[in-house]
């Protein structure tokens, strides 16, 4: 399936959404587990609908199943997400268990959580355990960040980066990686990540903070962002943009091909987005009896968000 232009009518575009091509699964390299939906922020683009009032969290028995699966199948990367994963009471214990297995550990950090009560030592803990930080900072402009994430979030994010920089994150010659994530404002697709990375590094250096790489991600048309698009009458146009910018070269690099996403209850999905849409259903305890390679990857209209333009994934753009 090559690039095509979307029609102006919702129904016409809807027909094209159903045509997203099948995606074949490779061997699993990464387990991404959602520790829960509690977060100290409520961002307008959040596809998890996370926030301070959410109480769902992964239980210790489910975390045990995660490590049982990791041991059984030789998974090498554990990707911790939420909400704010650091707010889970077993976050540090989970990191320690992963370190004992010499896993590559990723923490999806929103930066401001490092300033919350009880998190005073978190930056030091993350550094000691060599956790790879992938942190959300949707723009280097204070106005844009505060519009998307709430008043004062930009300055608090800078303060969080400073705490990580003091531990060695983002510094030349350091093995501690701090990558930032850019999300567009509104319905635009991300620009070239390397060009934007130069802008980020220049502007953030003025603030005295440093990082390694910039990852660009498309805003997925699901949950909170989809609701805002529908409210503003922009959903049809956004979907047409994703469809018309479809690039088949992205199919070989889609993250769902070698990743499993586990929700806080222990149910298994192809990706974080399918998890939020409930497109799955197998529990991890049942998967221990079989193989993830037998699971069909469930695709739908939202998959155009990962395959449009330069592509999008939890690791950033799929094409340079």
Oligomer: single chain
What is the number of helical segments per DSSP (H or I, 4+ residues)?
A: 12
- In what order do the strands lie side by side in the largest sheet? 6-5-4-3-2-1-7-8-9
Beta-strand percentage range: 5-15%
Cα-atom radius of gyration: 19 Å
Biggest sheet character: 9 strands, mixed
The CATH C-level class name: Alpha Beta
Tell me the number of strands: 9
Low-confidence stretches: 1-16
Q: What helical percentage do the residues reach? A: 25-40%
* Elements, N to C (H/E): HEHEHEHEHHEHEHHEEHEHH
Write the layout of secondary structure elements.
Elements: H1 10-17, E1 30-34, H2 60-73, E2 77-81, H3 91-100, E3 104-109, H4 122-128, E4 132-136, H5 142-149, H6 153-166, E5 178-182, H7 193-206, E6 214-216, H8 223-231, H9 235-244, E7 259-262, E8 267-269, H10 272-277, E9 280-283, H11 284-287, H12 304-307
Parallel strand pairs: 1-2, 1-7, 2-3, 3-4, 4-5, 5-6
Antiparallel strand pairs: 7-8, 8-9
Describe, in plain words, how this protein is organized in 3D.
By secondary structure, this protein is of the alpha/beta class. It has a single domain (25-234, 253-298), classed as Aldolase class I (TIM Barrel). The chain has twelve helices and nine strands. Strand 7 and strand 8 (267-269) form a beta hairpin. Helix 1 packs across helix 9 (235-244). Mean pLDDT is 89; it is low at 1-16.
């Amino acid at each position: 399936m090559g690039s095509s232009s979307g029609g102006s009518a919702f129904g016409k575009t809807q027909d094209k959404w159903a045509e997203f091509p099948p995606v074949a699964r490779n061997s699993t390299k990464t387990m991404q587990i959602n520790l829960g939906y509690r977060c100290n922020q409520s961002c307008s683009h959040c596809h998890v609908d996370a926030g301070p009032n959410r109480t769902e969290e992964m239980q210790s028995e489910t975390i045990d199943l995660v490590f049982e699966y990791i041991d059984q199948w030789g998974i090498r990367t554990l990707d911790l997400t939420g909400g704010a994963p650091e707010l889970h009471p077993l976050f540090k214990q989970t990191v320690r268990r992963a370190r004992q297995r010499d896993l590559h550990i990723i923490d999806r950090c929103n930066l401001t959580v490092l300033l919350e009560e009880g998190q005073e030592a978190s930056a030091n803990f993350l550094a000691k355990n060599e956790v790879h930080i992938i942190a959300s900072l949707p723009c280097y402009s204070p106005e844009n960040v505060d519009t998307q994430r709430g008043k004062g979030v930009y300055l608090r994010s800078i303060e969080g980066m400073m705490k990580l920089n003091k531990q060695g994150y983002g510094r030349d010659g350091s093995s501690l990686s701090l990558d930032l994530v850019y999300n567009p404002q509104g319905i635009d697709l991300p620009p070239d990540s390397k060009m934007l990375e130069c802008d980020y590094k220049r502007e953030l250096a003025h603030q005295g903070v440093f990082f390694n790489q910039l990852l660009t991600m498309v805003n997925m048309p699901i949950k909170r962002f989809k609701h805002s698009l529908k409210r503003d009458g922009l959903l049809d146009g956004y979907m047409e943009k994703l469809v018309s910018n479809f690039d088949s070269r992205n199919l070989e690099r889609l993250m769902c091909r070698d990743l499993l996403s586990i929700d806080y209850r222990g149910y298994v999905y192809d990706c974080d987005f399918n998890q939020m849409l409930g497109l799955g259903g197998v529990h991890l305890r049942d998967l221990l009896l079989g193989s993830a390679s037998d699971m069909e990857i469930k695709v739908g209209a939202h998959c155009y968000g990962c395959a449009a333009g330069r592509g999008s994934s939890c690791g950033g753009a799929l094409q340079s």
